[in-house]
Amino acid sequence: MKNLAPLFARRYLRSARSLSVINTTATVSSVAIGVAVAAMVILMSVYNGFDGLLQQITNTTEPDLVVAPARGKSFEAESLNMEGIVAVEGVVAASPYVEESVMAEYRGRQMVATLRGVGGNYTDVVPLSSPEVMWYGEWKLTHGDFRRAVVGRDIDNIFGDGYSAKNPSAHDMLTLHALRRENISPLVPMAAIKSKRVRHAGTLGEGTTSLGSHIFTSLDWAQELLSLEGRLSGVVVDAEEGAKLSRVKRNLQAAVGDNFSVKSRYELNEAVYKATKAEKWAIFFILLLVTIIAAATIVGSLVMLVGEKQNDIATLYSMGARRSFVARVFTLAGLFIGGRGVVGGVLGGVVVCLVQICFGVVKMPGSTFLVENYPVEIAAGDIIGIVVAVMAVTWLLTNFTISRMVPRVSKPNEARI
Q: CB–CB of 43/283 below 8 Å?
């Protein structure tokens, strides 16, 4: 009897005896569900693409791990064993840095910036020196006894002539102002400001948006300007490729002790990642609501189908069929209607995504984005989640409708099988 229910359900939807309006309504219901499912697949894949793009950007601009003081903004460099950090299993390289806010000035134009003085091997941890990352110039913070600076894209605006020349040697010296940390007499307030000049070496490109207001110089030069001689703000750490970052972080935390905190790249950009995930799932539930509305059209199809098949239902009852069997027949019919839409929607959404991935049909608006085409990344987990959610909604609507539409046996004492 159980095997007969799917057979009956399929024949009811395909039978030539069924009213054309029922078949048409069922087809419309499947199409409506398919369009909603396809939209879910496409939009979720686009969000995956943007998430991957964000990870690609942070892989370029942020280290795998950062060791920073648990309290305060800086610490004595001697209190942290750099060799011990590099010796931790899974750590490839580590580089110290010092960071503080400064005022940048160029030909009377001023901007607030973040000065970061970095060690000589900083680019072994954060790959900012590659030509793909640099907009123009080069990552060369020392030239003999002279010190130079690499600036972010926002700071480059201070030069004014940078867009036309794109030649650091054509720029004058950049002046940086910082607050002194020594005791200063209130009678001479200007003595609280310490200034140094540095030559512009190059500018970071569009893929380093988060570093737009940064100025990178050598570690010793920044320590002198910021009055932080012998002190550090933190250490950036590069983990082995393929290593489990959580395990490396745990081992590194044990090596540096409780006076320091270790944060991963995700934790450094936690707000951005959480916002992206929240937007993605908000879109998912909004589209799921649209899918529920589309799936509600199945109710009309089932009502008409049950009404048309009253004679068949009476025949089944007379043959001893239970009401649960009859209800299962029409429930499966509703699931078949929804299932056609889900399969078609998934296939259509995947095809659209593959076309975008292969041919880049839809372009990004404007010219300020890092990619020319909308990024798309298909995730099997998202597709499975969409299928399960939509089919669950279809089952609930179908089961609710059938439970109230299928008539009960008119003769309670009639034998059942």
A: yes
Averaged pLDDT score across all residues of the chain: 86
CB atoms near residue 356 (< 10 Å): 19
Residues 6+ apart with CB under 8 A from 109: 158, 160
Q: What is the dihedral of CA 204, 209, 213, 215, to 10 degrees?
A: -30
pTM of the model: 0.75
Q: Where are the alpha helices (DSSP H) in 296-370?
A: 297-308, 310-318, 323-359
3-state secondary structure of 72: coil
Give SS3 for 3: coil
pLDDT digits (tens, 9 = 90+) for 309-340: 788 778 877 887 787 888 888 888 889 999 99
The tens digit of pLDDT for each residue in 103-156 reads: 999 988 999 999 999 999 999 999 999 888 999 999 999 988 899 999 998 998
Please tell me the chain's helix, strand, coil percentages from 3-state DSSP, rounded to the nearest 5.
55, 20, 25
Give first-to-last CA distance, the chain, whole Å: 9
- Among residues 146, 178, 171, the alpha carbon closest in space to that of 157 is found at 171
Per-residue b/e over 204-232, b at no fewer than 16 CB within 10 Å?
bbebbebbbbbbbbbbebbbbbbebeebb
Q: Which residue has the tokens 């659209």?
A: 352
Question: Could you give the CA distance from residue 398 to residue 361 in angstroms, rounded to a whole number?
Answer: 38
For 18, 260, 333, 334, 394, the CA distances from 314, given in Å and listed in that order, are 17, 77, 18, 20, 26
